[in-house]
Amino acid sequence: MIEPRGARRRRGGPLHTRYARTVRDKPQPPERTETVRDAIAAELRGQPLTARELSERVRIPEREVADHLDHLARSARGRGERLVVAPPRCLACGFAFDVRERFTRPGKCPSCRATRIAPPRFSLA
Q1: SS in 3 state form for 21-78?
Q2: How far apart are CA 10 and CA 17, in angstroms?
Q3: What DSSP state is assigned to residue 120?
Q4: Would you state the pLDDT for residue 28?
Q5: Whole-number Å distance between alpha carbons of 120 and 53
Q6: Which residues have C-beta within 8 Å of that of residue 43, sequence separation ≥ 6?
Q7: Are 120 and 85 in contact (CB under 8 A)?
Q8: Does residue 50 sit within a domain?
């Protein structure tokens, strides 16, 4: 019998590997009755939310929210809706990122260089 690399036998017991996982150990994704974008659109019709709040409610990683919002903005125009974005603001000096086209939070303020920035809020109108 050829043993996999990193495998050890324990005193006549079964073969153990250092990082062995079985299929049942993996967490299963939640069952969805609607698509991710439909769920995001339903949440945005209620009240303005940040990307983090959306990711918590829809149960997707926060970094995926911006891609979904970009597509949702384009598809909302076809339905006669509009994605409203409340711009991010610097918490130190109050600078508003009004002209920003990306849906992610900026890294730092261009006027005072502070990194404490309130994230943008999104809603459908």
Answers
A1: CCHHHCCCCCCCCCCHHHHHHHHHHHCCECHHHHHHHHCCCHHHHHHHHHHHHHHHHH
A2: 11
A3: P
A4: 62
A5: 11
A6: 49, 54, 57, 58
A7: yes
A8: yes
Taking a C-beta distance cutoff of 8 angstroms, is the pair 15, 9 a contact? yes
Residue 98 lies in a domain: yes
DSSP annotation of 108 reads: S
pLDDT the model gives residue 104? 87
Residue 86 forms part of a structural domain = yes
For the chain, list residues with pLDDT below 70.
1-30, 32
Q: Is the pTM of this model over 0.85?
A: no
CA dist., res. 88 & res. 94, Å (int): 10
For the chain, the domain total comes to 1
Supply the CATH number for residue 106's domain.
Answer: 1.10.10
Distance between CA atoms of 24 and 112, rounded to whole angstroms? 51
User: Which residues 6+ apart lie within 8 Å of 6 measured at CB?
Assistant: 17, 18, 19
Range of the domain at 108: 36-124
* pLDDT given at position 53: 94
